[in-house]
TrEMBL record:
Record-level Gene Ontology MF annotations: ATP binding; DNA-binding transcription factor activity; sequence-specific DNA binding
InterPro entries: AAA+_ATPase, AAA_lid_NorR, CheY-like_superfamily, Homeodomain-like_sf, HTH_Fis, LysR_HTH_N, P-loop_NTPase, Sig_transdc_resp-reg_receiver
Record's keyword terms, sorted: ATP-binding, DNA-binding, Nucleotide-binding, Phosphoprotein, Transcription, Transcription regulation
Protein species of origin: uncultured Desulfobacterium sp
Name of the featured protein: CheY-like receiver, AAA-type ATPase and DNA-binding domain-containing response regulator
Residues in Response regulatory domain copies: 10-125
Upper taxonomic lineage: Bacteria, Pseudomonadati, Thermodesulfobacteriota, Desulfobacteria, Desulfobacterales
One family name in Pfam for this protein: Response_reg
Domain Sigma-54 factor interaction: 155-383
Residue positions, PTM 4-aspartylphosphate: D60
GO BP terms, alphabetized: phosphorelay signal transduction system
Length: 467
């Protein structure tokens, strides 16, 4: 396991009984919570809080010197941001309830039940994290600059939507809560996940796995591992990716394709931090932060019963949607220049010069495969390149074939009739003028490309324009 401290600020445990302190310390460490300060003397607590910030506190009610209820009032008065969980005996439950009304976050009853203790502590940490993130979000929105531009260096963009997304990522990156990343195929969901990991400050590894098509056994073995003898061929213990990602980030791509059985196991990991390696009877605990991604609409999936509702709501604590490339066409010149450079190096060719018409042509195509499709198209064009100026023929041929083969993402869900009418019908002359005007707008005034969109020759378009 990693030596990374979790959480970042310490959990303070206050109890005058050494055995209770040891029991709580052991239980928390087994659950992956290893940043702990124990205190036997209630008189020292306030000085401890003044010297160093803490994540939360576990506070016994019955102690010498200062009673827990009295100490709670002092903590709530001077450090209201610290969640306090009361530790109480069964005969003091009424007092514990009174403490809850005074501002305690929760209470646990002696003898301490490990599962109840871990759940209360995890919820208190999540609550503190949400408060911290909300404050950071308000502060960061007021800022115009990125604090970690290097984390986003792999994402080629100058689009305002994307830059706003980067700012949001900087705000939520440190959260232990799950983050759901959505977007069409090829928009760069794993690049965004990697950027979140870099900004988060987590020192553990970034571990990615595509879970599409994994049956439940393979999913469990891949993520959770197994013990020796768990199944035929399991001749030794094997750590899963969850354990390998300790102290870091576990990225699960194509999460919308998980089976229901696997969804239950993932939900347990997200809610309790627990998982069961195959063949093991007692759970292990993870402190890896989980990011998930999908190109599906999970709202529709949960409505249709393909995704459990409890998992759907848990996954979407924070949601990042990456816009498709057709909604940020201003990035196309930057991306083309980058891919031309990469292709020339990879293919050991001199870097070609792109014709200015190329960007106008690409802006008339919806690029359903997004950045990944554009990269493949540029690489193909460079591989066929023979002269100084990059030829448009590869692009024109590809776009024509794709348009004939399938509808664009913008129109495939719309009515099959490409033109709709309301009120008085326009004349043939008016309709033709409107079509030509729109084609020229989309082609940025390039008549050759406009003619291609309209399905006529460039001389035919020129003749109509002269009329």
């Amino acid at each position: 396991m990693s030596d990374v401290l979790h959480p970042g600020l310490p959990v303070v445990v206050v109890d005058d009984e050494e055995a209770i302190l040891l029991s709580i310390d052991t239980s928390l460490r087994m659950a992956g919570i290893n940043n702990i300060i124990t205190c036997k003397d209630s008189r020292k607590v306030m000085d401890l809080l003044k010297n160093d910030p803490v994540e939360m506190m576990l506070l016994d009610l019955t102690m010498p010197y200062l009673h827990g209820e009295e100490l709670l009032d002092m903590v709530r008065s001077e450090f209201p941001e610290i969640p306090v969980i009361i530790i109480t005996g069964t005969v003091e439950v009424e007092t514990a309830v009174r403490c809850m009304k005074s501002g305690a976050f929760d209470y646990v009853v002696k003898p301490l039940e490990e599962g109840r203790l871990i759940k209360a502590v995890s919820q208190a940490m999540a609550f503190k994290g949400l408060r911290r993130e909300n404050l950071a979000l308000k502060q960061h929105i007021l800022s115009d600059t990125l604090e970690h531009p290097d984390a986003f260096a792999a994402i080629i963009t100058n689009n305002q939507k994307m830059l706003s997304l980067f700012k949001y990522i900087e705000t939520i990156a440190a959260t232990p809560q799950p983050i759901l990343i959505t977007g069409e195929t090829g928009v760069g969901k794993e690049l965004i996940a990697n950027a979140i990991h870099k900004v988060s400050g987590l020192t553990g590894p970034f571990t990615a796995v595509n879970v599409a098509g994994l049956d439940d056994h393979t999913f469990s073995d891949t993520l959770f591992g197994h013990v020796k003898g768990a199944f035929t061929g399991a001749d030794r213990d094997r750590n899963g990716l969850v354990e390998q990602a300790a102290g870091g980030t576990l990225f699960l791509d194509e999460i919308g394709d998980l089976s229901h059985t696997s969804q239950v196991k993932l939900l347990r990991l997200l809610q309790e931090g627990e998982y069961l390696p195959l063949g093991r009877d007692t759970p292990k605990y993870s402190n890896a932060r989980v990011l998930t991604a999908t190109n599906q609409d999970l709202w529709v999936s949960q409505k249709e019963g393909r995704i459990r509702k409890d998992l759907f709501y848990r996954l979407g604590t924070y949601h990042i949607h990456i816009p498709p490339l057709r909604d940020r066409m201003d990035d196309i010149p930057l991306l083309v220049e980058q891919f031309l450079e990469e292709a020339s190096v990879t293919l050991n060719k001199k870097r070609p010069t792109p014709p200015k018409e190329l960007f106008s042509l690409l802006c008339t195509y919806s690029l359903p495969g997004n950045v990944r499709e554009l990269r493949s198209l540029v690489f193909d064009a460079v591989s066929r390149h023979t002269s100084k100026m990059l030829s448009l023929d590869v692009f024109k041929s590809y776009i024509k074939k794709e348009r004939q083969g399938q509808p664009s993402p913008e129109t495939e869900k719309e009515d099959k009739t490409p033109i709709s009418f309301s009120g008085k019908l326009p004349t043939i002359k008016q309709t033709t003028e409107l079509l030509i005007k729109e084609a020229l707008k989309r082609s940025r005034g390039n008549q050759t490309i406009a003619a291609q969109i309209l399905g006529i020759s460039q001389p035919a378009l020129s003749k109509r324009l002269k009329r």
